[in-house]
Amino acid sequence: MSDKLFGQPPSGDRLISPARRSVKILMIGQPDDVEITIARLYHCGFCRVEDWSRPLPYVQIQEATVREPGEIMRIYKRSMSL
Asked: What is the pLDDT of residue 20?
């Protein structure tokens, strides 16, 4: 398997101390849909509900997603089935 799958940064990027590294999961949607998705992730054992931030207005998302050197972003879009 490629080293990139195991967290090796692309050449030229500054290494970040392992103690400071984190993955940010950003969920944007209608309030009910976001809450339902968080509950489903909890029931799958993926996360604890209390580990999510309080709901933020869309204008505060930029403040909550300050980029660290070398970070990339991927977005997964999935339609809700209600």
From this structure: 65
